[in-house]
Amino acid sequence: MSNYGQLFGDPNFLSTIERTVVFNLIINPLQIGIALLIAVLLTRRVALAGVWRTLIFIPVTIPIVGSCIAWGAALNPQGPINALLSAIGGNPQPFFTSPTQALASIMIVASWIGIGYWMLFLISGLESISGDIYEAARLDRAGALRTFFQITIPLLKRPLLFVLVADTVANFVLFVPVQLLTQGGPESSTNLLMFDAYQTTYTFGSANAGAAEIVILTVVMLVFVVLQFRLLREER
Q: With CB atoms 3.0 to 4.6 Å apart as the test, which of 35, 120, 193, 210 could cross-link to 200 if both were Cys?
């Protein structure tokens, strides 16, 4: 119990919990929203839909270490993204070297890897919805927005919540991009709970405190998951 008391008495650790929760509150809806939008577009009658699906899924097939190295080079202050910004008259950005931009840059890397993966589950859910339902909606002169919110979303609720739960777990234990690209910096702006537990255990040599942090991470993550399963149970 002394480990928990010491952790919760540390303002830096409380900031890490807050940062981790905020990170997940932003990145989870962002990833699922973009994945859903792409899934909806690719289940319409668009040219070369199979090719687009493959291109969007390709980042999932690349090892996460390779993706992190590529994005680290791309978002380097002297990298190609800043070169492009300068070429079109914009101002170069610090990205991973800025306390205000580093966490958002980590979100970009995580989303690049995750969106294509979650898209496949949502496409599967969309394709399981009977076309007769949409035909009936058209006969009732339902518009695109009404059809989406009153037919597509309710019928997609189960796969959507499954994806949300899985995405939540994945982002709570996100480690590799932080470890490779920022080491929790600058100024602890990307120090998420999973990386902090690793650092406490292996850098500072405090295995008991690190284990306590993992327990706290698990509890916080389970709160999110239980709330999401609660929504699933109410839908049933």
A: 210
State pLDDT tens for residues 165-217: 999 999 999 999 999 999 999 999 999 999 999 999 999 899 999 999 999 99
Q: DSSP letters along 153-178, please?
A: HHHTHHHHHHHHHHHHHHHHT--HHH
Question: Checking phi first, is residue 39 left (phi over 0); if not, alpha (psi -120 to 50) or beta?
Answer: alpha
The CATH number of residue 38's host domain is 1.10.3720.10
Q: Distance (Å, rounded) from C-alpha 223 to C-alpha 232?
A: 14
179-186: list long-range contacts, CB under 8 Å, 24+ apart: 180/65, 180/68, 180/69, 180/72, 181/68, 181/71, 181/72, 181/96, 181/105, 181/106, 181/109, 182/96, 182/102, 182/106, 185/102, 186/97, 186/98, 186/99, 186/102
Question: Is the pTM for the entire model greater than 0.85?
Answer: yes
Residue 14 belongs to domain spanning: 2-235
